[in-house]
Amino acid sequence: MAHIDAGKTTTTERILYYSGYTRSLGDVDDGDTVTDFMAQERERGITIQSAAVTFDWKGYRVNLIDTPGHVDFTLEVERCLRVLDGAVAVFDASAGVEAQTLTVWKQADKYNIPRICFLNKMDKTGASFKYAVESIREKLKAKPLLLQLPIGEAKTFKGLVDVISKEKLLWNPSSDDGKDFERKPLLELIDPELLKETTEARNALIEQVADLDDEFADLVLGEFSENFDLLPAEKLQTAIHRVTVAQTAVPVLCGSALKNKGIQPLLDAITMYLPSPEERNYEFLQWYKSDLCALAFKVLHDKQRGPLVFMRIYSGTVKPQLAIHNINGNCTERISRLLLPFADQHVEIPSLTAGNIALTVGLKHTATGDTIVSSKSSALAAAHRAKREGEKKHGKNNEAERLLLAGVEIPEPVFFCTIEPPSVAKQPELDHALKCLQREDPSLKVKLDPDSGQTVLCGMGELHIEIIHDRIKREYGLETYLGPLQVAYRETILNTVRATDTLDRTLGDKRHLVTIELEASPTETSSVMPVIENAENVSEDRLKVFQEAIENGIHSACLQGPLLGSPVQDVAITLHSLIVLPGTSTTMISACVSRCVQKALKKADKQVLEPLMNLEVTVTREYLSPVLADLAQRRGNIQEIQTRQDNKVVVGFVPLAEIMGYSTVLRTITSGSATFALELSSYQAMNPQDQRTLLSQRSGFAKGF
């Protein structure tokens, strides 16, 4: 996991080559890498979908997933972290910690994933080992354990020193694939300087680990307090393993994937320090004992085989022709074939045990984030065990929730635009394509606009929607048209208002009569859904019967606000009185409640909320002022300007509406030398002037047609 362009895919490529699973070294720039296999990925040189590969290294079986770095595809990263036991954070040694590095690091914290840092691009101009390590310490608030030191930096980078064994690793300059390298012990005669530096680093490392691990501290203070040099490497390695798994520190390694240096030691470190599946204990596993329990974390659509589902097996075994039960979808399906993803070939296998990642064929209804068990009865048995345990510990507990492996929280989309098929006849084909794409990518939402009947795509960013459009064309052969990108505004109210409404209808020989009085007020805390309360004089018992109808009415009224027709948030609705003639249908109650809420919202002082983005622009000194001037025009709010070696990093907030098409503008004003990263921060109230401009634009728009 890493920021854009830190070298994740190239590192993956080298790993597969040295472990013997590919015969040639792929290159992102040539577009022939194993894990970036989609046409769009090869053209743009970026990773869009995470790709899972399996390989063996020195007797260990390793499952590796290469993830994207772009903020539009953060969900991909989160899904993969959810099912893995360890992570390698890749850094660009000349930039250290960047915007997206911070995001993926937080995601790994969320799922408690132990990790190793790999400082890549040590050969790049401006690479600095010290600077990168310092930024890990400061920005990620992590404790770096230096297991290697580079020999030379930037152009002079030729190898590295293994701090633990005090050996130097030099790559043969004449070998073009980096398979040949020699390990030599550091000798006083040949490299006195390097040996001194390495000994100091090793002593510092031993002290750091001893601070964090009591067992190791006892050993150091006991036998080796006089001379750290005598401490055996194995003891130090097991202690580093414990510290890494406990997530109290992170081992740091360095190298250059593109120049084929430092990858083999990285593989050794992965097998040595990151946890194996047996070392990670998940709370829910005890209920399943040896029954099957797996999580589907990704769906791909294959032209020949249909949907391929990637799943991580937590317990039990999976075999072809096995019937499985999907807890989330509450349905039973059959796996027809079982594959292992070795690089770009999928190898068929007869069975697979816990801890592995499997690719299954034949599951038609399973989507991302579904929990898979062997049968309904096995799920019930597990629920029963969980319940018994739960009652011992903390009284009653919702058992169904305990059994579901937590899926992934899907962020709310901020960009949306209409999509039109080339002709009405192609609409069903477009619907099918979108349905398939939604199963693959849960962060894409598709809805119908009730007013115009158009299909609306909701996504995480400009790039995201562009890629979806491109995939529909390539994979489904449909030339679709995208409308202009729109921003997802929200609305709220500023004061408290009361409204009453009566609905009196006679249908056939039945009279429906509802009278309602309610009040809408702004909430203190932010909440996306309306908060529903009852006034003190309203008896709860009487309302129980109508509760659902009332809630439905309120929710449907809050979906379209009075100003722009955007969802209304941060609103509390208090019910003051409800009089219903016996025999009135619930739909009528819902309709009346909904109309009354809309009336109240219309009466109140209304406010538009707009999405505010976190923006980080990395720019060279000479272009700093045009960038700042441009951001000021875009209603930007600059928080701070940091220095990152020769570059300046501008950190601030900017409204999403002002940042459309920013990449082109930024390229123009900085002659292509700047990069930027965006992320949704929060929704914020627009000032009255901007709000008036927006509303007159929207209404002028409607009048113009």
Q: What is this entry, summarized?
A:
With 705 residues, the protein is α+β, with helices and mostly antiparallel strands. Helix content is 33%, strand content 29%. It has 20 helices and 34 strands.
Strand content: 25-35%
Helix content: 25-40%
Distance between the termini: 48 Å
Number of helices: 20
Q: What overall geometry do the principal axes of the alpha carbons give?
A: globular
CATH topology of the largest domain: Rossmann fold
Number of domain units: 5
**What's the multimeric state?**
single chain
Protein name: Ribosome-releasing factor 2, mitochondrial
GO cellular component, one term: mitochondrial matrix
Family: Belongs to the TRAFAC class translation factor GTPase superfamily. Classic translation factor GTPase family. EF-G/EF-2 subfamily.
GO molecular function: GTP binding; GTPase activity
Secondary structure elements and their pairing?
Blueprint: H1 8-18, H2 39-44, E1 51-57, E2 60-66, H3 74-83, E3 87-92, H4 99-110, E4 115-120, H5 129-139, E5 144-146, E6 148-151, E7 159-162, E8 167-171, E9 181-185, H6 192-212, H7 214-222, H8 233-245, E10 250-254, H9 263-273, H10 285-288, E11 293-302, E12 306-315, E13 317-318, E14 323-326, E15 331-334, E16 337-342, E17 345-348, E18 352-353, E19 357-361, E20 370-373, H11 376-394, H12 399-403, E21 415-420, H13 427-440, E22 445-448, E23 455-459, H14 462-476, E24 481-482, E25 486-487, E26 490-493, E27 497-507, E28 510-522, E29 531-534, H15 540-544, H16 547-559, E30 571-580, H17 586-603, E31 606-620, H18 624-633, E32 637-644, E33 647-655, H19 662-669, E34 675-685, H20 688-704
Parallel strand pairs: 3-4, 4-10, 5-10, 29-30
Antiparallel strand pairs: 1-2, 6-7, 7-8, 8-9, 11-12, 11-20, 12-19, 13-18, 14-15, 14-20, 16-17, 16-19, 21-23, 21-24, 21-25, 22-23, 26-31, 27-28, 28-30, 31-33, 31-34, 32-33
Helix pairs in contact: 3-4, 6-7, 6-8, 16-17
